[in-house]
Amino acid sequence: MLLLLPLLLPQADGAWPLERPLDRILLVSVDGLRSDALLAARPEELPAFRRILAGTSTLNARPDPDLTLTLPNHTGILTTLPALGPGGHGWTRNDEPPAGATLHDGAGRYLPGIFDRAHDHGLATGLFAGKSKFVLFDRSWDAEHGAADRTGTDDGRDKIDEFLVDRDPEVLVERALAALRRRPRALVLLHLRQPDDAGHRDGWDLSDDSPYRRAVAAVDRLLGRVLADLEEQAGEGRRVGLILTADHGGGAPFRGHSARRELWINAVIPLAVWSPCLPEGRDLYRSGGGRWTEPGIRVPGRSEPPPARNLDAGRIALELLGLPPIHPVAFRPRESGTTEDPLPSNPETPGVERGPPSPGRGST
After folding, report:
1. How far apart are CA 158 and CA 144, in angstroms?
2. Helical H segments across 94-210, by residue range
3. Which of 79, 64, 41 is nearest to 308 (CA)?
């Protein structure tokens, strides 16, 4: 509990102070990263994380209001929607997706994502993940299932230019950075699985030199390489940025995270924005223009004022790139109004029929 005290001390600040949009965004999701794992580290232990958190950040963000699972939360990041409730994305299962399944099946409609927005506006896109079940996203927005491009030049239905699953994080980082440089403007998602692997194998143990702490330190070394590359791109005149978040925490039970989503150790995660184009030392809640409510130690449900969530990472990416949101207003509970989707259901997308959300399965 004492480790959480620094999470709850806000700092006064303003809003995004950008003269013009960024050119390239790397969105990094660290699977199973608890915020207090970053606080437990010695100052010299996690230099890359510390640099990223020195931007605009909070260590008191939350995952999906109902599910602390990998696929539903990454679906939220990519669609900027929660899983359940009116207008939710509807994907609740967490195992390998069935053959041929797409996100549109669970939603009962075409489900646009941040890659729709980016690709249709001519940006390079890429998704580099450490788990094979992320094939769900590539399939959902491929040349067969993606929506027609009705924005300017026709860039095609396949919304993800490059997709790779590899258990080797070094390969993922190398390929993600290369994809980011592919065109003058780009949006790329990088998923790193090591902390989640260590947590499920050995527990979400924050003691010195635990496997979990070592996994977080390994991610920090990779992020150091990422920051060096982004600074090199900035030196070449590119306006670059990095958004960092996690899909869930973990530790309740000791080697899990899904059975007790209401417990803070499963639900308190980071959300940080770093860019050479943005000032440092800004608290995300104070700079959010009132869109989020600081939750303290609580884990708010869908009907409560929303905290900053990992699904906001996708919204922030579009904002910083100067692209229109997928949804014109942030998702709110039914009593506050429903969400309209400006990207209509695609009548040319086959096999999309309304049905109940798929059952939740799996825990990694």
Report:
1. 7
2. 103-107, 114-120, 135-140, 169-180, 194-202
3. 64
Helix (H, G, I), strand (E, B) or coil at 45: coil
- Token digits for 315? 């919204």
Q: What does the block give as tokens for 278? A: 């943005």
CA distance 235 to 218: 26
At 74-90, the pLDDT tens digits run: 999 999 999 999 999 99
With bands split at pLDDT 50, 70 and 90, how would you rate the model's confidence at 282? Answer: very high
Tokens at 96, concatenated: 């390998």
Q: Whole-prediction pTM value?
A: 0.88
Quote the distance between the C-alpha of residue 191 and its chain's center: 9
For residues 111 and 176, what is the distance between their CA atoms, to the nearest angstrom? 24
pLDDT, greater one: 356 or 271: 271
Crossing angle for the helix pair 70-79 and 312-320, to the nearest 10 degrees: 30
The CA-CA-CA angle for residues 182, 115, 132, to 5°, reads: 90
- Reference 198, options 224, 222, 218, 172; nearest CA is 218
- Cis peptide upstream of residue 253 (ω within 30 degrees of 0): yes
Domains of the chain and CATH, by start: 19-331 (3.40.720.10)
* C-alpha–C-alpha distance, residues 245 and 58, integer Å: 10
Structure tokens at 317: 């990416």
